[in-house]
């Protein structure tokens, strides 16, 4: 399968980012960042290259919520997937990020099939 979709993935925890990227690289082109500030600087210049942004919610310097709000200002049509180890319920997360849907939230720890399936579902990819 040719990798046609390019993802921007942001998580401040290098180990989780590494595992997430390794999993997603089987199906997608992936640009990883441990800093939401650096990811945002990159996204501002390359926003049209991406088909989805995947971000953690809790990160130092700039929260994932702040990061994603700016991403949506730059490119309102970009699909978003949020990953979190935060103990808040999906309803609390949706309350904090009103434009996010429950289907766009993945809780850590997640299995490889779960994260790939969530990305494919959002991008409406049916073949594996």
TrEMBL record:
Keywords: Phosphoprotein. CDD domains: REC. GO terms for biological process: phosphorelay signal transduction system. Pfam families: Response_reg (PF00072). Signal peptide: none annotated. The keyword Lipid biosynthesis does not apply. Residues 6-123 form the Response regulatory domain. This is Putative signal transduction response regulator, receiver domain protein. It comes from Nitrososphaera gargensis (strain Ga9.2). The lineage of its organism: Archaea, Nitrososphaerota, Nitrososphaeria, Nitrososphaerales, Nitrososphaeraceae.
């Amino acid at each position: 399968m040719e990798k046609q979709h390019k993802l921007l993935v942001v998580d401040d925890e290098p180990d989780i980012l590494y595992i997430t990227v390794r999993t997603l690289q089987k199906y997608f082109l992936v640009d990883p960042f441990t800093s939401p500030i650096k990811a945002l600087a990159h996204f501002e210049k390359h926003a049209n290259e991406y088909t989805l942004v995947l971000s953690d919610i809790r990160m130092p310097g700039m929260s994932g919520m702040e990061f994603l709000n700016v991403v949506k200002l730059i490119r309102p049509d970009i699909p978003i997937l949020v990953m979190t180890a935060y103990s808040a319920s999906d309803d609390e997360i949706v309350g904090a990020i009103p434009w996010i849907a429950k289907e766009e939230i993945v809780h850590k720890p997640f299995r490889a099939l779960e994260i790939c399936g969530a990305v494919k579902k959002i991008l409406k990819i049916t073949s594996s």
